[in-house]
Specification:
This protein has about 300 residues and is an alpha/beta fold. It is built from eleven helices and nine strands. The N and C termini lie far apart (about 75 Å).
Amino acid sequence: MFELLKLIIWLLFHLTLIFLKPILIILAIAIIIIFIKDIYYKKSVYYQITRQSYWSIKKDLGKYGEYLIYKQLMKFEKNGAKFLFNLYVPKENSKTTEIDVLMITHKGLFVFESKNFSGWIFGRESQRSWCQTLPKGRGISQKEIFYNPIMQNRLHIKCLKTLLQHKIPVHSVIVFSNRCTLKDVQISSNDIKVINRYDLAFTVSEIYEQTEIDLLSDNDINEIYNKLYSYTQVDDITKRLHILNLANTPSESFENKCEEISKNVSEKELLEKPSVVSDQLLDKEIECDKSVSCDPLQRNELN
């Protein structure tokens, strides 16, 4: 009986090893991949400036979107480009505005606004509010209103130019994730780009090619970088005040009314007539309450 029990235990042990072995191998491979990614990440300029761990940005959709923008563009470092992230640039009212990603190049400055969204995006350059929709099937869709990222980035650029006191060409690039579709986005200005992340490297390369001469020297790039670097290294108090100021901006009633408009748009309309939906959102865009500033630069610019 004792020998039989030993045999059963031996069989169970080896059967367990047989079934667990593939799992252990997969787990080991996953750990190695993560370890390699972490080493690669810590060598990046993004980590050197932000000092945020790989795991922390993986859990933060916004930060991870910024890092993915950098990964798409890091090849431009070979051409002398320099990057800065999360710049808390002062505004005229002693508050701050946050630039997600700044690339300083011989061809000028590139200011990137990252929107790591999913779903469908509707909006026009002149609209104060844009719409994100997430179709859920069976005629149901979730709709979210967000501030026009072009106007948002316009404020970033205005404050940046004021700070630098230098007539430097600045390119505004709004970058949405690869998980979303720019269903009906209408842009009229040639110097503004609204793209998915997979088009980012091509778009920047195209701007490079269109700018035949170098507008900034190596010394200019270093001077601008050194002047702006400190704005990426602000303390936690500055960051908290920035968030607090956003929360206290009197735009809640405006956003709530815009949300009411978006709820009246059916999923069928989104599927069949995206341009009509965009028109509807624009035509019905309500006037702000008198207590809310109608100047896009004075209302909540979200970052």
